[in-house]
Design goal:
Chain lengths: 893, 436
């Protein structure tokens, strides 16, 4: 893209002449000239506050010293940062800041990486003129994870400003006045917030520190490894710091990775899972019905021998494999290669099946891409953002930050269709920033989207070129939405025709529009169809195919996207290429020098069915836990118990692994090298921070060892060698850069879709019928819709082994609207019994304005009992299992 | 005693004047508003105010009409007028009287300003302690709305002028215009970094004018009697108009005196305020509120206008004149004022936050007979390191009592310290940095 003409300014800083964009702050210009102006309160992410007064510099023709952090450059400006006057000013400000500082560096966790220490070393004499009494704050308990030591605070308010400006949480506030100013949570209660750790990271001194590693280290003792977080699809770069092979802390440097140094609670405080005492340290073999410790040789040989025996007896298609999308690309790639070659079956699937595959398949269908056509940067610079079915601040918090930045800093218009209502609470709520919010029940996103499309068509917002390019397509959709009645849409969604019209106008007229969809779309019935329909919305409004515009399905797991691209799903080969596409097959076959199995692969749900029917004899499950994830009604346990042989490769002895005949201990991300592909398609390096726990081994190494024992050697020296092979199949793969290059829609694919592709299911996609499930009662009988939702503080079941996160959320409770609670005579923390025709569970209730009337939420991370109440339906096209919604009755115990 | 014709205090000095709408109208009130509304173009009103030479009465003395002119032209979005009624400067009590005794004069001024700058919403940010003033203003607003002087369709012209009273919560700093805006927005009252100035980025980031109560109260008179009349009062061109001086301290008749700017300090103190309360001569006075440096008897013939007072090394400030007689302990006086500033420092900027506590502790030590000669050096240094190094003018204000007393009465500090030294070395007193 050609660079737009930028106004520049030429100035002189300490004799360096430099030209910088207009609007640059002197402190940033100085940095570019290699001049570091000392500062505490300035931070590139925050609006200048100029409160510490440390960055005073001399500017020619200005009578007083100016703060470099708040002064924009001007043409011909002459700045001096090292004159006697400036040095004296720096010394004096530092003298003030140190006056009340306790100088307790020997017991301060920040010691050794403290700005105050560094500047004191540079500017102050070894003695102080201050002989008065230092101000002492009484010690107060702040929160389970975050410690404050207010005597060390320099009142720069970076924490407060970060919490407000970046996070939009506003949990912190300065309290008291003058020297008695201390940082507290509002009112007298312990901190109740998102626990993103941002305040800990941004504190220039040791005033706010992590309690998880308090007094455990001196910074210079720590070994650092830059790697990528595994708790969601955002793919945040983290630096894991270790001491003696123990995880001490996680941080993310300003400017690092796609997250630009920002993290969420999971990333910052959730790191102890890898060293949890329950980690599997040895292989286990079932002997006399009991899993007992075994050697690697015994375990691998048993798996290999059994596999060979069963393959001879029943053929390769008696096998199936399942892998978690938390694994690296290298693991995923080798797993599917192992299944397809060493075993010889396409019966393999990954956790991308739970929802991500819906987004990828819709993108491939309509525009021929398997990735987003936008990047995080495009989200930030979008003019209109439409969020459908995503509680983004909890599921993908860092992508959520990009949305917040777009709205708060760049005044983008936010449109939201979600079940959660705008309401102020302890954690940020994207609906609060929305200017067009449609609060609809989780099974009514489709009518809301259809309402938007109807308004687009009726109000003449349709791309004028479309009539020429795709008359039949346009006609079909126009006719379909005109057949829908506004009263019906309003009845389904609660949105008035006028509200849809306004939203449609804003969206259609914006210069750059991005649609983000989350689990509310991808993991709810009609997910694939609705994702496709949202691409129609882009096509109709002419927002499709333009740079910076597109549909962005949000990945739930860190490598959901990689799992699909590595071909670790039944229908795709690495690339991804369609298993049924001869060209794709031959390309892979050529590289592998081997024919690929012919029979189409089974996906997760049919696998379980076939296992239950006795047609599948063996399964190899890597890091996945269908018994613990799927509802009881899916009968995953029965299915796996019907197998002749089940091998599991795991970190922990999960519900699934407990059924296995052999359990192989695998390494966590903290112990291995490789790559993850984040939700926007950016491939990032994963580096080991600690040595493997116990005898655990990286997943790919285990596949490789098994293949050798099975007489089908897939040998690699290290993960990089696998990546090399991946690159030969997928050019550019793993090209590491500061930002990914977004994919462009393939014209051929779009034309194909507009010509005929749309028609196969257009009637279904544009019909209002079949959207609502059973009629919902809102009477006094306690009949409500239960949604199994994701919490900010957990990721799947994995994070429920993190001691840090458990301190924030240790158990599940049922969240409901205060009005419903009042109707049912319930108060906060009351015990309730939740029932439906499938079963019952007991839990406590929590009230939240965010949850709309008629809906109750329960976190999936603690859903062991809730899964009794759920039914499963399967997407007719993508076979994604849908089981997040059900109807329940609640009564007080 | 020369008699000066009062302008702003004129109504309330009439016997039986209650400040009600009826009284105000009988005294010719709201005629200025009728005059401008729809008859004089807004730009012309601004021009009249510029021509009158009216300067802000809050403390900084910025020309009012010029300030209005900084609002962006051709801007159609919301903009605001804020009447700064957070009168908190020690020794200053003129705005309170204007609001309590003749509220409609203030409201008419607000309405004229709203008209001139095209504002539909005005806020009166009133000091929290002025409960009575707030009540009176609110009642007056109700009266004015009912009579069509405020509200929608003002005097049938279709214009909207809504005035709201917002009570502060007890912070001196909220009299600083940007801290006032923060507080009005519901946030902690901390000064903002300028630029941008409120004229372009003010309340809710919208163009905003902040004017003092007395400033606004002058507007009806400028309209009624003309800018030339106004410009002829006082010591034009730089200090036109009258000024309400709040005289307090050791004088016979403390109170508010409205006089033309440019009369001498001597006339104000000895003729208007009746001179010293006892036979002790005048030792020191502050000419413009606690933020203004002390002056001495040598300065009694300084003219009370912006330039002359500045030239004498102090400032006209808020018009709060505090008089001290011979016998006043000037170190103690400096400490008392510094304690005020220590209590009120908002804590935003390091030099002011830490410096005010350091200064107050050192002064307390000196007053308590624990001083050391080098403390005077440190005090001077600290003051110089605070002044000019903070976001708002508070830093300059808080050092003025110390620097000016050190300048004129250094011997009193030295005497205290010498006496302490004569007593021999003592254990350092441990003052406590008590919570506010």
């Amino acid at each position: 893209m050609p660079h737009a003409a930028v106004d520049t300014v030429t100035l002189t800083i300490d004799g360096h002449h430099l030209t910088v964009p207009k609007g640059t702050l002197v402190i940033e210009a100085a940095r570019q000239a290699g001049v570091m102006v000392p500062h505490f309160c300035y931070h590139p992410k925050l609006k200048p506050d100029a409160n510490c007064r440390m960055c005073l510099v001399e500017v020619e023709k200005m009578p007083k010293l100016q703060t470099a952090c708040s002064t924009p450059v001007a043409e011909g400006m002459v700045v001096r940062t090292a004159t006697t006057v400036v040095n004296e000013a720096h010394k004096s400000v530092l003298e003030f800041i140190l006056a009340n500082h306790p100088l307790d560096c020997p017991v301060c966790d920040q010691g050794g990486r403290c700005d105050l220490q560094d500047f004191s070393h540079q500017y102050t004499p070894t003695t102080s003129r201050f002989i008065e009494v230092k101000r002492v704050f009484p010690k107060e308990y702040f929160s389970p994870l975050i410690e404050t030591q207010m005597n060390r605070c320099v009142q720069c308010l970076r924490c407060v400003r970060y919490c407000d400006e970046v996070m939009d949480v506003k949990a912190l506030a300065p309290s008291g006045r003058g020297t008695m100013t201390e940082i507290k949570s509002f009112l007298h209660h312990e901190l109740d917030c998102e626990f993103c750790g941002g305040c800990v990271q941004i504190c220039p001194v040791g005033a706010i520190t992590s309690r998880l590693s308090m007094y455990e280290y001196r910074p210079w003792m720590l070994k650092r490894a830059d790697t990528v977080c595994t708790y969601c699809g955002d793919g945040c770069q983290i630096t894991i710091q270790t001491k003696d092979n123990q995880l001490v802390e996680v941080m993310s440097a300003q400017g690092a990775g796609r997250n630009n140094g920002d993290l969420c609670a999971r990333g910052f405080f959730g790191y102890h899972v890898s060293t949890h005492p329950d980690r599997l340290r040895h292989p286990l073999i079932r002997r006399d019905g009991v899993l007992v410790q075994a050697t690697w040789e015994e375990a691998l040989e048993l798996v290999a021998e059994t596999a060979v025996r069963l393959k001879l007896a029943h053929g390769p298609n008696a096998f199936a494999g399942l892998i978690a999308a938390r694994c690296t690309n290298e693991d995923l790639y080798l797993f599917q290669k192992f299944m397809r070659l060493a075993i010889g079956t396409n019966h393999l699937d990954s956790s991308a099946r739970y929802g991500q595959i819906n987004g990828v398949r819709a993108l491939r269908r309509v525009q021929g891409t398997h990735r987003w056509t936008v990047t995080f940067e495009d989200i930030v610079s979008a003019d209109a953002l439409l969020l459908v079915g995503t509680n983004i601040t909890e599921t993908n918090p860092i992508t959520g930050l990009k949305v917040k930045e777009a709205v708060k800093k760049r005044q983008a218009t936010l449109l939201t269709i979600d079940s959660l209502e705008p309401a102020v609470g302890a954690i940020s709520n994207i609906a609060n920033l929305s200017s067009h919010h449609f609060s609809v029940h989780p099974d009514r996103f489709k009518p809301a989207v259809l309402g938007l499309i109807k308004a687009v068509v009726e109000d003449g917002h349709v791309d004028p070129t479309l009539a020429q390019r795709a008359p039949a397509y346009l006609q079909t959709i126009s006719d379909s939405v005109q057949d829908l009645s506004w009263p019906a849409i309003e009845a389904a969604t609660g949105g008035t025709p006028e509200s849809f019209r306004e939203a449609a106008r804003t969206f259609a007229r914006s210069a750059r529009a991005v649609i983000l969809i989350g689990q509310g779309v991808l993991r709810t019935a009609d997910g694939y169809g609705l994702a496709t329909t949202l691409l129609d919305l882009l096509l109709l409004t002419g927002q499709h195919g333009r740079p910076g515009c597109g549909l962005a399905p949000l990945a739930e797991e860190n490598n959901d996207q990689g799992a699909v691209e590595m071909g670790a799903v039944a229908e795709y080969l690495p690339g991804p290429g369609d298993l049924s596409d001869p060209a794709a097959r031959s390309r892979v076959a050529q590289l592998w020098k081997e024919d690929l199995p012919q029979e189409p692969g089974l996906t997760l749900m049919p696998m379980l069915e076939r296992a239950r029917a006795g047609a599948l004899k063996a399964m190899f499950i890597v890091g996945e836990n269908p018994v613990g994830s799927l509802p009881l009604s899916a009968k995953a346990k029965e299915a796996l118990q019907s197998l002749e042989f089940l091998a599991c490769q795991e970190l922990f002895l999960t519900e699934t692994a407990q059924l296995a005949h052999v359990v192989l201990p695998a390494c966590s991300y903290a112990e291995k090298d490789g790559t993850f592909t984040n939700t926007e398609g950016h491939v990032q390096a994963v580096r080991h921070a600690i040595d493997p726990i116990g005898e655990s081994r990286p997943d790919w190494e285990i596949f490789s060892a098994l293949s050798v024992l099975m007489g089908y050697p897939l040998e690699y020296g290290d993960a990089k060698e696998i990546l090399k092979e991946i690159r030969s199949l997928i050019p550019d793969y793993g090209r590491l850069g500061p930002a990914p290059t977004p994919m462009r829609p393939a014209t051929e694919a779009v034309d194909g879709y507009l010509h005929t592709g749309y028609a196969t299911d257009a009637a279904d996609r544009y019909a209002l019928s079949g959207t609502g499930h059973e009629a919902r009662g809102a009477g006094n009988d306690g009949h409500l819709t239960l949604l199994i939702a994701q919490s900010l503080f957990h990721s799947g079941k994995l994070s429920t082994r993190s001691k840090g996160l458990l301190q924030v959320q240790a158990e599940g409770s049922l969240t409901l609207n205060p009005a419903d609670a009042a109707r049912l005579g319930l108060a906060d923390r009351d015990q309730v019994r939740v029932t439906n025709n499938l079963g019952a569970m007991t839990t406590t209730v929590m009230l939240a304005e965010r949850v709309p009337k008629g809906l109750v939420l329960f976190p999936e991370h603690f859903d062991q009992e809730a899964r009794r109440l759920l039914t499963v339906s399967t997407d007719p096209v993508t076979q994604v299992p849908y089981y997040k919604l059900t109807q329940v009755t609640i009564e007080r115990l | 005693m020369p008699k000066h014709e009062p302008v702003l205090l004129k109504n309330m000095l009439q016997p039986g004047y209650t400040g009600s709408l009826a009284d105000y109208e009988r005294a010719g009130g709201y005629q200025a508003l009728r005059t401008v509304l729809g008859k004089i173009p807004p730009a012309e009103v601004t021009h009249m105010v510029i021509k009158s030479g009216l300067r802000g009465r809050g403390g900084a003395g910025f020309p009012t009409g010029v300030k209005w002119g900084f609002l962006p032209k051709d801007y159609t979005g919301p903009k605001y007028l804020c009447c700064n009624a957070d009168e908190s400067e020690p020794g200053t009590f003129k705005d309170r009287q204007l609001m309590e005794r003749d509220p409609h004069q203030v409201l008419e001024g607000i309405a004229i300003a709203c008209y001139a700058i095209g504002v539909e919403t005005a806020y009166i940010y009133i000091r929290g302690e002025f409960a009575l003033g707030a009540k009176i203003l609110e009642a007056a607003i109700r009266e004015a709305r009912a009579a069509g002087y405020l509200g929608t369709n003002v005097l049938g012209t279709g214009r909207t002028m809504n005035v709201w009273v917002h009570r502060g919560a007890g912070a001196y700093i909220c009299g600083e215009e940007t801290a006032l805006l923060e507080s009005l927005e519901g946030k902690r009252g901390l000064p903002r970094v300028k630029p941008p100035f409120p004229a372009t980025h003010g309340l809710y980031n919208k163009p905003t004018v902040v004017n003092n109560v007395e400033t606004l109260a002058n507007l009806p008179h400028i309209i009624t009697r003309g800018p030339d009349w106004f410009a002829s009062i006082g010591s034009p061109p730089k200090s036109a108009g009258t000024r309400i001086f709040c005289v307090s301290g050791h004088v016979k008749r403390p109170g508010n005196y409205e006089v033309p700017m440019g009369i001498t300090c001597r006339e104000l103190i000895f003729e208007q305020a009746g001179g010293m309360r006892s036979d002790k001569p005048l030792k020191a006075f502050i000419p413009g509120g606690a933020s203004a440096p002390f002056l001495t008897p040598d300065h009694l013939d300084v003219k009370l206008d912006f330039e002359s007072v500045a030239q004498a090394g102090s400032m006209l400030g808020s018009g709060g004149v505090t008089v001290m007689e011979e016998g006043t302990d000037m170190v103690w006086a400096a400490l008392r004022l510094t304690e005020f500033f220590y209590h009120e420092s908002c804590g935003k900027c390091s030099p002011c936050r830490e410096g005010s506590s350091w200064l107050v502790q050192t002064l307390r030590r000196i007053v308590a007979g624990q001083g050391r000669m080098q403390d005077l050096e440190t005090l001077t240094d600290l003051c110089q390191n605070i002044a000019g190094r903070t976001v708002c003018a508070f830093g300059d204000a808080e050092v003025s009592p110390i620097l000016s007393t050190l300048k004129y009465w250094r011997h009193e500090y030295e005497a205290l310290i010498r006496a302490a030294e004569a007593d021999g070395p003592t254990e350092l007193l441990m003052p406590t940095a008590a919570r506010h």
